């Protein structure tokens, strides 16, 4: 036998052997792509807690890998591809900006499952999307904020003008203005998910302009620290933990928090993949599914307000109350929801307008 | 638009705070580049300073100790760059970039146990009657000590470069290392000292972020400040006085755009958001337009490796 032929058949044998191993491998490899560092104390930290929950749930049956601080853009595509090539069976891409990258890579690897967080594009059968109904939590925070403000100025540090963020602003404003009609919403677009210095500056700019309750849709704890400093200098500023509990900043300025708990979803999906019941889905869980949780409401909040907030959590959880229930009018005066009408999911995921009463404009 | 809701005095005060980290990092890099070395690792050294300063400040309960540790941490990391580029003749651009990546990774590792921990507060300086001056008191005299330290460092660097023999030697090394070597100056030693100073300053800038401006430790918290500092050195055409102008301009626009947003200015947010970077680019273009002058300002041997046997 010629040497080349020998080598060729040897290579073939090795190739077959590895394929066999790949088919019959016991461990399910689960990949996670993160937009920030796992130590951001917010968004990415919570996703990583979900990853750890998957490991704890399935033990040796799974192997997890992750890549942190992956920029949204072409780099993401490279990272996802790399993860698939290294043997991942399912990849969770955990930021809105990975939407196209996820779908592009999914087209090339039809046997691998892809799960994209907070997006809406499912161009291929192997792409699922998942999101959490953060606006449910924002409603509760808005309610508390409306009661707590004395200057009637509520600040909202926003990241990018996407429906998910706009839902949050509208939900918070609707419920704040319900208990306090004089409330004004001050929105700063940071154009970043994570930049502690910029978030701190944004919070300071708000505080200097008289904002005394700050909500944030960015991932770091910097606004909490800025509020804390203002309070140390005689201010009266309240904040809410974002994505993670941020309990270190309680009982003041942090008076409550909106927590993303991805563990139930991750465990469910990986479990389905292992037992073969996995199907493409577009999941949008909220308080009933345990994906959106309100952290401890501290004693800075009057007991009556706290009780109302908890009652709202209860009502949303058991399905008797929807934060977007009419009558609601759009900012430009056109009606959005009639009396008693509830927003559909399609209306929510395409939300690109402020509700009546918010004075600033959404950048487009 | 309701501009009256912006408190201009507080805005001017907070621009000084916002500019301090990049001011510190930029003045350090100025000295490095004046000695003929291009260290692109400012971001890495800043974040090392941020984490070292934070850890020591938390462990000792003293912010001043934290700042000292930050300077030491930044300088130590810069020595890695120094050894690689000065003794092993590695490419300065590549080494600097590697230093940034290394610093980001190492700081994340070191900071593992310090996420969510609070930093000890830094006391405001009590400048007595100065703080009570109308207008000026609010803008200039109610800051923490580091704001004044950063300005003092800039003035010291300016005086050092302009009036002292040491400054002359440093500039000579940057303009023509062969000539300086022929005159008997130890080029490598001068450059190592400059690199260490640059690292120390970058470390202080980073610690200002983690101990005063944010103040807590989060991975990747410098978020590009080091690159802005590099741009500001060019912006300032390698002149210490203009570093202050550049840093305060950048810090000012950063703070102003947030204030304008909060005040509901009818300017597209995208424009506001990119304005600090836009202005930086425009000024860089204006400065670089006159090629002769730009070339004249930059140290002649910037980025060139030196070996005594040449």
Q: How does this structure look, described?
A:
The complex is a heterodimer of chains A (364) and B (310). Chain A has 364 residues and is of the alpha/beta class. Chain A has helices spanning 3-24, 43-58, 74-85, 99-108, 134-148, 163-179, 196-208, 222-232, 263-275, 303-317, 345-349; strands spanning 28-33, 62-67, 90-93, 113-117, 127-132, 153-158, 184-189, 213-216, 238-243, 254-260, 282-285, 292-294, 328-329, 335-337. In chain A, the strands form 3 sheets. Chain A has a 6-stranded parallel sheet, sandwiched between helices. Chain A has a 6-stranded mixed sheet with strand order 7-6-8-9-10-12, with helices on both faces. Chain A is built from 11 helices and 14 strands. Chain A is globular and about 60 Å long. The model of chain A is unreliable at 11-24 (pLDDT under 50). By secondary structure, chain B is mostly helical. Chain B is built from 13 helices and no strands. Chain B has helices at 8-34, 42-60, 63-87, 92-110, 136-140, 145-163, 165-175, 177-182, 187-213, 225-235, 240-262, 269-289, 291-297. In chain B, helix 2 packs across helix 9 (187-213), helix 2 crosses helix 10 and helix 10 (225-235) packs parallel to helix 12 (269-289). The termini of chain B are far apart. Chain A binds chain B through residues 36-41, 69, 155, 186-192, 194-198, 200-202, 204-206, 208-211, 220-222, 225, 229, 232, 246, 248, 359-361, 363, and chain B through 5-7, 10-11, 14, 18, 21, 108, 111-112, 115-118, 121, 209, 213-216, 218-223, 225, 254-255, 258-259, 261-264, 266, 268-270, 273.
